[in-house]
Amino acid sequence: MIGSITGEIGEIYYSEESVANIVGISTMECYGVVGMASKNAKDGFWELIRGESLSRGVKIRSKNNELLIELYIMVEYGTKISVIANNIIQRIKYNVENYIGLKVSTITVNVQGVRI
């Protein structure tokens, strides 16, 4: 469980996997993002992840019922990385806070590579 919300009738608990999927989908909607990156443990290489398991490029921690999100992405060649990162941060913060109701305190975007 990464977070919970208490309502009138009961509580809602969110798993890390479900929040990571929402973050991954929100990231892939941004212009210039080619895919998420996942480190191949045995080789030490970064592997491009497209649509199947976007949560593998996302790390989420919870501190004082606020989320700390860390992303590993690959971007398209010829795009401005700072603009892409800003768009990702704004979209994730909006989607997570409005759809799930959990507060996001920090989002870190790690660009692991550039694809042509």
TrEMBL record:
<dbReference type="InterPro" id="IPR005531">
    <property type="entry name" value="Asp23"/>
</dbReference>
<dbReference type="Pfam" id="PF03780">
    <property type="entry name" value="Asp23"/>
</dbReference>
<protein>
    <submittedName>
        <fullName>FIG001802: Putative alkaline-shock protein</fullName>
    </submittedName>
</protein>
<comment type="similarity">
    <text>Belongs to the asp23 family.</text>
</comment>
